[in-house]
Each structure stands twice: as structure tokens, then as C-alpha cells.
Design goal:
Length: 90
């Protein structure tokens, strides 16, 4: 998908489908130096924990939050599209 192409309803549906196939949430990012405990940095999920190599703390936080953020963003896109369609009389 080109950055200038509008996101289609199908694109949004595929994004949500990927999010829903991921391990159940919520996911939480645990960083040893930030949380004040010893051990590895990891992402806690509703299943197995995820350990990343080569990721920054910001990367880990982004990945962990994406499990909750993506479905919320997709829901908002769908809500705004519905409002736009209603305002156009569709």
C-alpha cells in the first residue's frame, strides 16, 4: 500500500483481523531498570511472555501497547467513517 493511497475498509478489516489473531491481551511491557526488579526485560501477554532481542525500551513499549492500541484505533476509524457516511447521506 502506497503512503498516499487511502486506507480501504478491507485494509482496516485486515489490520483488525491480525490484531485479533494475536495472543490475548492486555499486554504489558516490563523493563528491569524501570520496574525496579531484577531479571530480563519482556512483554507479558495473556499467554507466553515475549522476549525481544535488539529492541530498545521504546520498541518494546510500542509492541506491548499495540495489542491494546490497534483495536481501539480501528474502532475509532470505523466510528469516524460511519459518521462521515451519515453526514454525506450514505
Amino acid at each position: 500500500m502506497d503512503d498516499e493511497d487511502p486506507m480501504t475498509k478491507e485494509d482496516v478489516g485486515r489490520i483488525m483481523a491480525r490484531a485479533m489473531r494475536a495472543t490475548a491481551g492486555p499486554w504489558s511491557s516490563f523493563v528491569e531498570s524501570r520496574e525496579g526488579f531484577s531479571g530480563s526485560d519482556f512483554i507479558r501477554t495473556g499467554g507466553e511472555d515475549i522476549y525481544l532481542t535488539g529492541a530498545t525500551v521504546a520498541d518494546q513499549d510500542f509492541i506491548a501497547h499495540a495489542r491494546q492500541d490497534i483495536p481501539r484505533l480501528v474502532t475509532e476509524v470505523e466510528r469516524l467513517r460511519e459518521l462521515l457516511n451519515r453526514s454525506k447521506g450514505r
